[in-house]
Amino acid sequence: MMRLRLTAGGDAAPDVVWERYRDLRLWSTWSPQVRGVDAPADVLSTGLCGSVVGPVGARVPFEVLDVQDAAMTWRWRVRVGFVDAVLDHAVHAAPGGSSTELVVTAPSVFALAYAPLARLALHRLVRA
After folding, report:
1. Residues 6+ apart with CB under 8 A from 66
2. How many distinct helices (H) and strands (E) make up the chain?
3. Phi first, then psi: what are they for 47, rounded to 5°?
4. Which residues have C-beta within 8 Å of that of residue 50, sequence separation ≥ 6?
5. Domain tally for the chain?
6. CA 113 – CA 78 distance, rounded (Å)
């Protein structure tokens, strides 16, 4: 297992960035690898399960492990094939906007392959 930390800063306000995380309907607006989300609710909550719909309709099941609205943090697990990954997200206020942090704990081949897409998504997430 590998633990990979990625960050990005931008001019979007922290509450805007947090809402982009919280509202599953918005994920495809900032994350290029997400075409949609199938879940019984549209808002992140602890225990929520569903599937992220990726390119060519590929579905990746997920479970939200924890959501802390006041701290603007959340954690989820995705499992597909040999990949069992836990992704920890955080939003922070920063001068002129916000920053976001993602820590991926996963098999190294997945973490390294996912990193370029994740970096792009994070930069889009914090952009006003």
Report:
1. 46, 73, 74, 75
2. 3, 7
3. 95, -10
4. 24, 37, 38, 39, 40, 61, 62
5. 1
6. 15
Residue 44 in contact with residue 64, Cβ under 8 Å?
Answer: yes
> Residue 77: pLDDT above 90?
yes
Phi, psi angle pair for 54, to nearest 5°: -105, -165
Largest CA distance in the chain: 41
DSSP string, the chain: -EEEEEEEEESS-HHHHHHHHHBGGGHHHH-TT-SEEE-S-SB--TT-EEEEE-GGG-EEEEEEEEEETTTTEEEEEEEETTEEEEEEEEEEEETTEEEEEEEEEE-HHHHHHHHHHHHHHHHHHT--
The pLDDT tens digits for 82-100 are 889 999 999 999 999 999 9
Range of the domain at 73: 2-125
Query: Taking residues 63-67, what's their average pLDDT?
Result: 98
